[in-house]
Amino acid sequence: MRVGELIRTALKSLLTNRKRSLLTMLGIIIGITSVITIISLGNGVKKATLKNLQATKTGKQTVTIDYYANDSNDYQAGFDQADLALLKSKNDLGVSNVKIQRVTKEFQITAVIFDTNKNLTATAVKDRPGVRLIAGKNISSYDNSVQNQRLLISKQTALKNFKIIKGALGASILINGLSYTVVGIYANNNESPYDTNLILPQETYFQGQVNDQGNSVQITFSKGSKISKNTEHLVTLLKKKGSHRNKGEYSFTDMGELLSGIGKVISALTYFVSAIAGISLFIAGIGVMNMMYISVSERTQEIGIRLAVGASPRDIMNQFLLEAVLLTTFGGLIGFGLGVGSAWLFSLLLPFKAVTTFGSFILAFSVSTIVGIIFGILPAKQAANKNLIDILK
Fold first, then answer.
1. Residue 99: which region, alpha, beta or left (left: phi > 0; alpha: psi -120 to 50)?
2. At what angle do helices 255-277 and 227-241 cross, to 10 degrees?
3. What is the pLDDT of residue 168?
4. Which of 20, 67, 182, 210 has its CA 20 to 30 A from that of 337?
5. Euclidean distance between CA atoms 62 and 95, whole angstroms
């Protein structure tokens, strides 16, 4: 039997009982719709996440290079204006901007307490820090707005430098030429978000400071630059010509590898959830098999007539198998369209757009076709194995 005639016969048989065919397709439609919706939304999350992590709003990409001193007691900044000029000169690597990053959490300072220099760690905050006060009062956003010279001191630091906890209240601590007044004492235990000696108002600490030194630089690359490879070149350059190359090490986080890892995790989660949703396809396949068995039983006379006029068992098998495949394939195509539509509707309520790829279409088409073959093969074999003599009896 020719392929064209085989397809026409299969379509005619399916259209003979349209309601039953449609209800059988419904399981495939729901399954494919669910899978395509989840994959499209997952692709959207992946694209939005990677874009936000990798690039600025203008499409430029950024990366941070950090400096770590060999001597933990060396508090000199690892980057200065000479390093910035060196990095900015590498336009051939796509460098469009370089700036020092201000560290506001857990940075080293030299404070003067009772005319003695103390190497302490500090945190600079914009708002009221969430710490448990033991004595005194907290600092707030108001202290930032008016640049009040107030600070909080940890319990351990207060005991070490003032002998008694409340002895620190009202004391003066000199930092960068400014005299700060201790207004509160906090417990920096495991429950505290700050494990530093001092907590300062950020605007007060940075007032009048030119942001030309630090231990981290943020480099902005032009759109389309190969940031991982180019940053490796910049780190090599700093190791050769950096101002503090003999006193520490330069390193950076390879965003290429990081983003690749994040992408793989999101993809794995997307396909895992899709696989769970795809369980409905197995149930739908059983429904297809059940319908085909009923169809074979109802069309025993038709099978006998075809065998009598010269059709081979292979032709009978191909016809019934094709009916099952057409049933699931049409359901898969309808499900794909509904999946794209539902993903688009969901994305209207979400902060990202759904992304449907050609691969999703291939997945929907191939999975629905495979379901038709797997669950249609046994009924088709049963139809092909019918004996003409038994049918005539």
1. beta
2. 150
3. 87
4. 20
5. 10
User: At residue 387, does pLDDT exceed 80?
Assistant: no
Name the β-bridge partners of 61.
55, 221
Q: What are phi and psi of 67, to 5 degrees?
A: -115, 130
Ramachandran area for residue 377 (φ above 0: left; ψ -120 to 50: alpha; else beta): alpha
The percentage of the chain sitting over the pLDDT mark of 70, rounded to a whole number, equals 86
Q: Which residues pair with 64 in a beta bridge?
A: 218
Phi, psi of 180 (to 5 degrees): -100, 145
Phi, psi of 168 (to 5 degrees): -80, -25
Give Cα separations from 316 to 42, 58, 98, 295, 332 (angstroms).
Answer: 43, 62, 73, 13, 24
Q: Give the per-residue pLDDT at 183.
A: 92
Under 8 Å CB-to-CB from 3, ≥6 apart: which residues?
Answer: none
Helix-helix angle 300-308:313-347, to 10 degrees = 130
Phi-psi region of 207 (alpha: psi -120 to 50; beta: other; left: phi over 0): beta
- Nearest by Cα to 296 from 309, 313, 310: 313
Q: What is the pTM of this model?
A: 0.54
Q: How far is CA 20 from CA 172, 282, 297, 372, in A?
A: 86, 18, 15, 16
